[in-house]
Amino acid sequence: xxxxxxxxxxxxxxxxxxxxxxxxxxxxxxxxxxxxxxxxxxxxxxxxxxxxxxxxxxxxxxxxxxxxxxxxxxxxxxxxxxxxxxxxxxxxxxxxxxxxxxxxxxxxxxx
Length: 111
Hints:
By secondary structure, this protein is of the alpha+beta class.
């Protein structure tokens, strides 16, 4: 299985978290997520980024296994199916930011 990297730079906690999102079965939803991240960037919001270059599960497992932690683990593997809310494209800047804040991307996955 392959994964892509979603990064959150959290200024409040002073930490950076990387969430490795399951690629298989999520290509369309990840494209939607990329558009949302791009939209936030046009607003000047640079807390989130998405790298769509696939990583092998073995690589992700090593990162997760050796992850340091603070507020939460710095590296997390997220499996399941990404469900972007239908109205996400219409959310305000604050609401969209809040949807991803402090690892909120995990809540968008269903097993």
